[in-house]
């Protein structure tokens, strides 16, 4: 005995075109059959009346209409014959079943989902996805309900991407959900394309509409972000202050403005750092004596 994988067991359908008749031509034939019936009734021609009536019964049920970006799969006793993508009034044999499928773009905004990101932090995430049917045969025959299939797969894809990256990276060394929208959005589109290929659905565009920490950790993460911002600002401030102090001491030495020993140089550095790095304005003290008083 040999075992088959799910992919081997699935009979993948492929769309093919079928030639339906222009409905306006058949409409003229229908009007002609009506005229023949009237003529046969007037002349009491029984065989002609029966033939015209049969033609009328055969032609009338075969009409259907297709709007732009709409297709109809033609089925004969359960067998798929092809897809008609023409527009306007169309006609086919009345014993053929026509299943209409919209190939227009669909816009779906997923519900807000709670997902654990790469670091295990609970986050809330939602996405907007623009999708459309590209293969009507796959959409109708390879899945039970292609719209419900798309909804479930989009939710699963959003969850997968949300758990694949951290929400934020305070070291700015890796890809994050918050800091790399375009890159993560493109990966989400590729993920959804793979998941929806079974149903003959293509994804044209997708992106996040909601992205935030879950309420239970939002306050703590906000304080962490604020602390990181304060540390980063202090680091930049100290780096700038050290450069200014170094420049001041160098200029004083080059221009021979004042000669300072190590102790007075250290005191000057300390005073300059306090002035440059302090959060409040400093109060100057005027020294009317010497530097050593």
UniProtKB/TrEMBL annotation:
GO-annotated cellular components: membrane
Keyword NADP applies: no
Pfam family, one: Band_7
PANTHER family given in the database record: BAND 7 DOMAIN-CONTAINING PROTEIN, MEMBRANE PROTEIN-RELATED
Name of the protein in its database record: SPFH domain-containing protein
Sorted UniProt keywords: Membrane, Transmembrane, Transmembrane helix
Organism: Sphingomonas changnyeongensis
Main location: membrane
Domain annotation Band: ranges: 61-229
InterPro entries: Band_7 (IPR001107), Band_7/SPFH_dom_sf (IPR036013)
Localisation per UniProt entry: Membrane
Topology of the protein relative to the lipid bilayer: Single-pass membrane protein
Transmembrane regions listed in the UniProt entry: 21-42, 48-66
């Amino acid at each position: 005995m040999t075992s088959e994988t799910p992919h081997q067991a699935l009979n993948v359908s492929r769309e093919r075109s079928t030639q339906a008749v222009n409905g306006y031509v058949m409409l003229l034939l229908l009007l002609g059959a009506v005229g023949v019936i009237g003529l046969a009734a007037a002349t009491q021609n029984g065989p002609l009346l029966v033939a015209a009536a049969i033609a009328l019964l055969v032609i009338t049920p075969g009409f259907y209409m297709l709007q732009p970006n709409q297709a109809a799969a033609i089925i004969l006793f359960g067998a798929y014959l092809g897809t008609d993508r023409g527009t306007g009034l169309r006609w086919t044999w009345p014993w053929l079943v026509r299943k209409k499928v919209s190939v227009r773009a669909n816009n779906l905004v997923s519900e807000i989902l709670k997902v654990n990101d790469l670091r295990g932090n609970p986050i809330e995430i939602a996405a907007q996805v623009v999708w459309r049917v590209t293969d009507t045969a796959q959409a109708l025959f390879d899945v039970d309900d292609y719209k419900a299939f798309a909804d479930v797969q989009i939710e699963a894809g959003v969850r997968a991407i949300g758990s694949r990256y951290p929400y934020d990276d305070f070291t700015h060394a890796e890809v994050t959900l918050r800091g790399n929208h375009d890159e993560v959005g493109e990966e989400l589109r590729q993920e959804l394309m793979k998941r929806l290929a079974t149903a003959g659905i293509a994804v044209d565009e997708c992106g996040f509409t909601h992205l935030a920490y879950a309420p239970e950790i939002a306050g703590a993460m906000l304080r962490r972000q604020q602390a990181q911002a304060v540390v980063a600002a202090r680091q930049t401030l100290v780096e700038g202050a050290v450069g200014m102090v170094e420049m001041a001491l160098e200029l004083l030495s080059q221009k021979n403005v004042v000669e300072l020993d190590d102790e007075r140089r250290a005191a000057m550095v300390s005073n300059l750092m306090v002035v440059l790095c302090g959060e409040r304005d400093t109060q100057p003290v005027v020294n009317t004596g010497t530097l050593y008083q």
